[in-house]
């Protein structure tokens, strides 16, 4: 009986934690303030534009190639979307990709709202972190 009480308390404490959303799925759920087309502030930036819809994130590179994240995630069961934080001024997610050698590679993206027309983008990969400023296209 004593073990049952400890297990119940432990499970209750775990279920009350609210550190991250940690939703594993294959569809993005960005906040309304992020939906739109965002251009990099530097014309020569490698990642030229982010196109955010109500269920997808699409990257446009400098050479005009596109990367559709929903398509990428759904291409393989080894790719996972984990949404961590969806607030009035931040949207943070990780794309987890299982590499051919079995290692896991995480690509974390954070969009931070500066104003209605400006955001700061932070990208973290296992070995580095970079940031850029993007402006909403009218």
What does this structure look like?
With 138 residues, this protein is α+β, with helices and mostly antiparallel strands. The protein has a single domain (20-136), classed as Beta Barrel (Lipocalin). It is 16% helix and 49% strand. The chain is built from two helices and ten strands, in the order αβββββαβββββ. It has helices at 2-16, 69-75; strands at residues 23-25, 36-40, 47-52, 57-61, 66-68, 79-86, 90-98, 104-115, 118-125, 128-136. A ten-stranded antiparallel sheet has the order 1-6-7-8-9-10-2-3-4-5. The N and C termini lie far apart (64 Å). The model is unreliable at 1-21 (pLDDT under 50).
Keyphrases for this structure?
138 residues; disordered N terminus; 10 strands; Lipocalin; 10-stranded antiparallel sheet; alpha+beta
Count of individual domains: 1
Largest sheet: 10 strands, antiparallel
What value does the average pLDDT take?
Answer: 81
Structural class: alpha+beta
Described by the principal axes of the CA atoms, the overall outline is globular
The strands making up the biggest β-sheet line up spatially as: 1-6-7-8-9-10-2-3-4-5
Helical run tally: 2
CATH second-level architecture: Beta Barrel
Q: Give start-end ranges of low-pLDDT stretches.
A: 1-21
H/E series, N to C? HEEEEEHEEEEE
User: What is the beta-strand fraction?
Assistant: over 45%
Distance between the termini: 64 Å
Specify Rg, calculated over alpha carbons. Answer: 18 Å
Classify the fold: give the CATH topology: Lipocalin
């Amino acid at each position: 009986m004593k073990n049952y009480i400890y297990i119940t308390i432990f499970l209750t404490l775990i279920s009350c934690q609210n550190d991250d959303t940690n939703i594993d799925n294959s569809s993005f759920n960005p906040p309304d303030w992020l939906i739109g087309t965002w251009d990099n502030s530097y014309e020569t930036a490698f990642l030229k534009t982010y196109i955010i819809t109500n269920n997808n994130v699409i990257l446009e590179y400098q050479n005009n190639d596109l990367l559709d994240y929903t398509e990428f995630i759904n291409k393989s069961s080894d790719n996972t979307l984990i949404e961590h934080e969806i607030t009035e001024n931040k949207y943070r997610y990780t794309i987890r990709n299982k590499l051919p050698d079995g290692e896991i590679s995480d690509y974390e993206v954070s969009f931070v709202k500066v104003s209605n027309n400006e955001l700061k983008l932070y990208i973290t990969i296992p070995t580095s972190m970079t940031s850029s400023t993007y402006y909403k296209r009218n």
